[in-house]
C-alpha cells in the first residue's frame, strides 16, 4: 500500500470504529439476544451483524450506492424499509416480560432454544443490513473518505476490515453481557431495559420516517 492509501485506511477505520461503538440498534439487539438466549446466541447475533455489513460493502463496490445517492426515491424506499424493520424490532422489545412470567412457559422456552441459533444470526444480519443509518454511513464514507482512484481490491479490503471489526466488537459486547453476574442481573430486571430500548428503537425509526415525510 502507498502512504496515501494507508492514511485513507486509518481515517476510514477510525470513523468506522467510532460509529460501531456508538450505541444503536446493533448494540440493543446484541445485548437482548445475549441476555435472553445466552452467549452462543449473542455471538451468532454478532456474527450476523458482521455479515450484514457485507451487504453495504457489496452495493457500494458495485456502484449501487451512487445510484441511491442520485435517485432520491430509491433512497426513500430504503429508509422506509429500514424504519419499518426497526419499528418491528422495537415492538418485539416492548413485548418483553419479566423472567418470572416466561419461566412457566416451558414449551415457549424450548421453542426459543431450538430456534435461537438461526433466529439470532438472522436477527443480527437483518438488523444491520436493513439499518438506514448504516446505508447513510456508507454513502457518506465512500464518497468523502475513499478516493475514486483507490483500487477496487483495496476498497474490498476496507469492507472486509469493517465486517470483521463489527463482528469482533459485538462478540465482545456479548461476552460482557453473558458474564454470569451481569446476565443474572439483567435476567431479573432486563425486561425494563428491553422495553426502554424498544422505545428508543421506535423513536429512532419514527425520526427517520419523519425526516423522510418532511423532506
How far apart are the termini?
42 Å
SSE succession: HHHHHHHHHH
DSSP helix fraction: over 70%
* Number of contiguous helices: 10
Please outline what is shown here.
The chain is mostly helical and 215 residues long. It is built from 10 helices and no strands.
Describe, in plain words, how this protein is organized in 3D.
- It is a single chain.
- By secondary structure, this protein is mainly α.
- It has 10 helices and no strands.
- Helix 2 packs antiparallel against helix 3 (39-61), helix 2 packs antiparallel against helix 7 (106-129) and helix 3 (39-61) packs parallel to helix 7 (106-129).
- It is globular and about 55 Å long.
Entry keywords:
215 residues; mainly alpha; 87% helix; globular
Topology:
Layout: H1 3-21, H2 25-37, H3 39-61, H4 64-70, H5 72-94, H6 99-103, H7 106-129, H8 132-144, H9 152-177, H10 180-214
Helix pairs in contact: 1-9, 2-3, 2-7, 2-9, 2-10, 3-7, 3-8, 3-9, 4-5, 5-10
Amino acid at each position: 500500500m502507498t502512504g496515501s492509501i494507508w492514511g485513507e485506511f486509518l481515517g476510514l477505520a477510525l470513523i468506522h470504529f467510532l460509529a460501531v461503538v456508538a450505541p444503536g440498534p446493533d448494540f440493543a439487539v446484541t445485548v437482548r439476544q445475549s441476555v435472553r438466549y445466552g452467549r452462543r446466541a449473542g455471538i451468532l447475533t454478532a456474527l450476523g451483524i458482521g455479515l450484514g455489513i457485507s451487504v453495504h460493502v457489496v452495493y457500494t463496490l458495485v456502484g449501487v450506492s451512487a445510484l441511491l445517492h442520485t435517485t432520491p426515491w430509491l433512497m426513500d424506499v430504503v429508509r422506509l424499509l429500514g424504519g419499518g424493520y426497526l419499528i418491528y424490532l422495537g415492538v418485539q422489545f416492548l413485548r418483553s416480560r419479566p423472567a418470572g412470567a416466561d419461566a412457566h412457559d416451558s414449551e415457549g422456552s424450548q421453542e426459543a432454544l431450538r430456534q435461537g441459533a438461526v433466529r439470532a444470526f438472522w436477527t443480527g444480519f437483518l438488523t444491520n443490513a436493513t439499518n438506514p443509518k448504516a446505508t447513510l454511513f456508507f454513502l457518506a464514507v465512500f464518497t468523502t473518505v475513499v478516493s475514486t482512484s483507490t483500487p477496487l481490491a483495496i476498497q474490498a479490503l476496507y469492507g472486509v476490515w469493517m465486517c470483521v471489526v463489527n463482528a469482533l466488537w459485538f462478540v465482545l459486547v456479548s461476552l460482557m453481557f453473558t458474564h454470569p453476574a451481569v446476565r443474572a442481573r439483567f435476567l431479573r430486571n432486563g425486561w425494563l431495559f428491553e422495553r426502554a430500548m424498544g422505545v428508543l428503537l421506535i423513536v429512532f425509526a419514527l425520526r427517520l420516517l419523519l425526516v423522510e415525510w418532511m423532506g
